[in-house]
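User: Need the bound-state model for heme C:
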Amino acid sequence: MNAMRQWLCAVACACVTSTSAAQPMPELAGASESDLAEGRRYFESQCAWCHGTDGGGGSGPSLQRARMRHAADDRGLVQIIRAGIPGTEMPPFALSLTDRAAWQTAAYVRSFASAKPVPLPGDPERGARVYETTGCAQCHVIAGKGGTLGPDLTGIGALRGPAHLRESLTKPEAAHPPAYLMVSAVTRSGVLTRGIRVGEDVFFVLLRDAQGALHSLEKKTLARLEREPNGTLMPSYAQLPAASLDDLVAYLASLRGGR
Ligand code: HEC
Ligand code: HEC
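Assistant: Bound-state model below.
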């Protein structure tokens, strides 16, 4: 009998005897080859689009680590996969993955711990200087300093993979954190306001424009209110020299404060 079946038996017995104590879960390290193959299948269909096919990170963090920030042990890891991480972009999978599938996926995720992360080409110290001289702090906070139009970058290296960080710089309209939806509003008298939607209810929409000013617009005064799925207030830095981009990505990837 494999480890997973023992665990399921333990869970089933618990129902019969109505024991409320937590049942021992088989160790993820004990997963069989076929459990890992199943886990890989789930990972590639459900997780890879955010965490990368090799777990190296994307819009979600790299999972090529033995220690997770949000999970102290095996049970915590399975729990993250089932319940997600509330208040973050990490979604729950309790509806789409059975308990067994979540355990197998977790076992596959554990197998990334032995992967050697690919070293980044840039230099983080030079990247910090590029950050200062390019005016990024006008819109971004790092460790409490900077402007607030864009997201706080203090822990960005623990949240996004390097490929995604690079894309945020060269194609900001493609890599969009969900809280930064752009909308444009045109009043009946023809005044256009474009900005990040910071709030909305039945009667009003609240926008922050490129200068950081807030606009509270009454919907009944508007002729048009449109989402711009490809709109962004972040300028593209695709024209920076390739070496400066490498340095900047290395710097951003090194920012792990507060996470
Ligand atoms: C929509 C994108 C998305 C999908 C899909 C997704 N994740 Fe995540 N995941 C994230 C993000 C973003 C975080 C970081 C949350 C934070 O710390 O703010 C995260 C965090 C995690 C963590 C915690 C890492 C740590 O260091 O604590 C684990 C483990 C994880 N995800 C595994 C998975 C698995 C396994 C799947 C598929 C079953 C999956 N994720 C699907 C975006 C995603
Ligand atoms: C004029 C304001 C502005 C400037 C200047 C700016 N950004 Fe941004 N940045 C934003 C906004 C707004 C977003 C939110 C995403 C979007 O709208 O595309 C963002 C998003 C990002 C993201 C993605 C964050 C995430 O959670 O995925 C990174 C990384 C980033 N910026 C880095 C930089 C760096 C590095 C510079 C300087 C080279 C810079 N930004 C300059 C406004 C700015």
